[in-house]
What we know:
The complex is a heterodimer. Chain A is an all-beta fold. Helix content of chain A is 0%, strand content 52%. In chain A, strands 2, 4, 5, 6, 9, 10 and 11 form a seven-stranded mixed β-sheet that branches. A four-stranded antiparallel β-sheet of chain A has the order 1-3-8-7, with no helix packed on it. Chain A is globular, with a radius of gyration of 13 Å.
Amino acid sequence: GAVVSQHPSWVICKSGTSVKIECRSLDFQATTMFWYRQFPKQSLMLMATSNEGSKATYEQGVEKDKFLINHASLTLSTLTVTSAHPEDSSFYICSAREQGARAEAFFGQGTRLTVV
Amino acid sequence: DAKTTQPPSMDCAEGRAANLPCNHSTISGNEYVYWYRQIHSQGPQYIIHGLKNNETNEMASLIITEDRKSSTLILPHATLRDTAVYYCIVRGYSTLTFGKGTMLLVSP
């Protein structure tokens, strides 16, 4: 299947700082990318959907000013967690999909964020 | 999207077939059945998807009942590396919504 690379795989940051997570589609053009968050022993929860060149659509309850998403090219999307707090500690996972709503979505390996 | 129901956990002996059931009784005509799995601390991995015909690939087989209200994912010869949470997702044109999935434990 297609490859989606996410970086970094883990990060520890101090409370109040910002962290940027990158998601790249390596062998296909991702017109749509998704960001999920997963807390321990829970399932993935969709945070936002982004289409290349347009603003992200956030799910209810997700603060758009706190979780900044940029999808500037067909192969790269970034998620910036601004002014991180310990409760933002989680496993963040990106997903990318080619053009077409029926296309399969492929996932990155995830980023473990720990805010201390 | 239609909701799915999966058993929370299943056990399987290494080398045997693992049959993971999924109920999706409210599935509508344009919705596909997708299966993903998530090995601990990794991102989900696509396995297979189908509409109404049975599907097979190098990883697994997907059997969908004629009324499309349920399906079964079959791993023909389970290995220890198949231990993971398996998610059955019904999707039309929207995003993938993950339920709690089935934790499959493959034992020696």
